[in-house]
Amino acid sequence: VDTLRRTDFHRQIVSNGKMTAARRATLKFYTDGIVADLEVANGSRVKAGDRIAELDREDLRIALENASIALDKARIELHDVLAGQGYRSADTASVPREIMDMAKIRSGYDAALNSYRQASYNLSRTILKAPFSGIIADLKVKRWEQAQPEFCTLLDDSELDVDFLVLESEYSFLAVGLPVNVTPFSDPAVTLTGRITQIN
After folding, report:
1. Do the beta carbons of residue 21 and residue 157 sit within 8 Å?
2. Which residues, in sequence order, are CB contacts of 94 under 8 Å at separation 6+?
3. Cβ neighbours of 181 (radius 10 Å)
4. pLDDT in tens, 32-52
5. Can you tell me the distance from the alpha carbon of 26 to that of 63, in angstroms, rounded to the nearest whole number?
């Protein structure tokens, strides 16, 4: 026997769902080439900024060296133009902006600098780094093979999202921020807690 009292009634909704990593990224090279260096395997854990792989692109290294030589030459030409205007090459801070802009154009310095930046950028795209910490998955390429458009997947499993369905009649009982208990099929003894972050 118990005494009836007016109190809150806790409704529980049970649903099956799918767990996914909160952050997931498909990593790829933005240039083609042969994989010369591979520092990970499926299941490897990496930290943000860690090198994952590098392509063998000797042509891009040579292009960067040529751009560096052209930039040095343009820098000398720039000092020659400034000297012709009566300015000392060691004191470029005293040169008026209009004169400096004109000197850079005549010497080809700006064009050489842009070429160097482009060559440096192209070479940097041959190195694949982890944008965040996580675990490597879906890696199918081995060393000395041609890099595929989608190289691998990086999963951050420190936080997990759970997508689950509810009946239309249960929709009105949901709200962002409500607590959720999650029990994985792989280990029914474990119960994880979370909150509803969005409702589609």
Report:
1. yes
2. 87
3. 10
4. 889 999 999 999 999 999 999
5. 29
